[in-house]
Amino acid sequence: MSQSIQPPRVLNIEDLRRIAKRRLPRVVFDYIDGGAEAELTLRANCRAFEAVTFRPRCAVATPACDLRTTVLGTPLSMPLILAPVGSSRLIYPRGEEAAARAAGAAGIGYTLSTLSGCCLEDVAAASKAPVWYQLYLLGGRDCALSAIERARVAGFLALVVTIDTPVAGMRERDLRNRVKELLSRKLGMMLPFVSQFLTKPRWLAAFLADGGLMKFPNIVVPGEGPMLYADVTTALEQSMVSWQDLRWIREAWSGPIVIKGVHTGDDGRRAVDAGADALVVSNHGGRQLDGVAPTLRVLPEVLAAVGDRIEVLLDGGIRRGSDIAKALCLGARAVLAGRAYAYGLGAAGGAGVARAIEVLRTDLIRTLKLLGCASTAKLDESYIDIPADWRSIGRG
Ligand SMILES: Cc1cc2nc3c(=O)[nH]c(=O)nc-3n(C[C@H](O)[C@H](O)[C@H](O)COP(=O)(O)O)c2cc1C
């Protein structure tokens, strides 16, 4: 993998976001970009990275920086995994496959959402690197068990169980944009969107050529077939995961389990007790409970509780390679990114995802060189200053 740092037209993730905004219908762009309620946590996730400052070691030569790591025993070319982003196929034709392919080509992991428009078998086949399957219990236990079995056969390496969605967060942009009506597939309900779609003819043509609004091929309800978009919100509200469910999930899946959506040290301990192999400190990118603390800020609490027993990953607010470096300095094993690559997918499909990964990779190399640190494995708290009150957030 080249380590040269060329200044291309797309310099950063914000550039990809701007292009995606131009290319996508508003209802699709806002679906990616928005968060819950007042979007306090969405913004706080990003701002938390600003509160951490670097302490570089100058005049230290770092001719080749080593970004390689392992997560759950699997080698990755850098400490980055693409987070599950539901309905990526609305963003770009066969979006989940395109994103998985780009991740595989870059040697990093990809996590497929249960709410995917592409068959999990096709996504696994698209990537050369490890793929993880993110599980929601939509459609009931038998439906989940059949997806788990399909994921095992298809070669998914880990099962990611998301625990922060007892109900869907109130995403006000989606409500104002009338996403529910759009997804109802009733022609009359879709008419108000026609003018919005006609202003984005390239997206519309690609969307229609890809078959239009998909069903969910990985949520196959026994006796009914793949779940419809229109049924998802109600199904989500009847499908929360509890710690008790983790028992039968643990029995059904013999590979590694990653618990995603841990906000506190206490839940970190519960994840360990439930037999998880890794956890993701995550607030769903500010899309669920608005007003929770940013993930970077709760990372020290979770690490203090379980960092010696389980691999601790983080997501939320990763927009630059320096954000990845800060999370690693604080002790995360690796990070997941959601919007950073979803903007790339909206901007230019698989090429846009590849560009997002490359931006983060070259940023991270540059950050290491400027820090005077030869490898991501060597990053630790000696390279940063954190606000004095960050350590007092936890309660034991
Ligand atoms: C458009 C979108 C869809 C998402 N869909 C899912 C999903 O289906 N399952 C899940 O566990 N998390 C989902 N997430 C949350 C991400 O996996 C991740 O936690 C979050 O995006 C991290 O924050 P970031 O976007 O700031 O990187 C979604 C996020 C976005 C932006």
Key terms for this structure?
44% helix; two-stranded antiparallel sheet; 396 residues; alpha/beta; disordered N terminus; TIM Barrel; binds flavin mononucleotide; 14 strands; eight-stranded parallel β-barrel
Q: What features would you describe in this structure?
A:
- 51% of the residues are buried.
- The protein has an eight-stranded parallel barrel with strand order 4-5-6-7-10-11-12-13, surrounded by seven helices. Strands 1-14 form a two-stranded antiparallel sheet. Strands 2-3 form a two-stranded antiparallel sheet.
- It has 18 helices and 14 strands.
- With 396 residues, it is of the alpha/beta class.
- Helix 15 packs across helix 16.
- It has a single domain, classed as TIM Barrel (Alpha-Beta Barrel).
- Flavin mononucleotide (FMN) binds next to helix 2 and helix 18.
Concise structural overview:
The chain is α/β, with parallel strands linked by helices and 396 residues long. It has helices at 13-23, 26-33, 40-51, 88-91, 95-106, 120-126, 141-154, 172-176, 179-182, 187-190, 194-198, 201-209, 232-237, 245-252, 265-273, 295-306, 321-330, 339-371; strands at residues 53-54, 69-71, 74-76, 80-82, 109-112, 131-135, 158-162, 216-221, 225-227, 257-262, 278-281, 311-315, 335-337, 384-385.
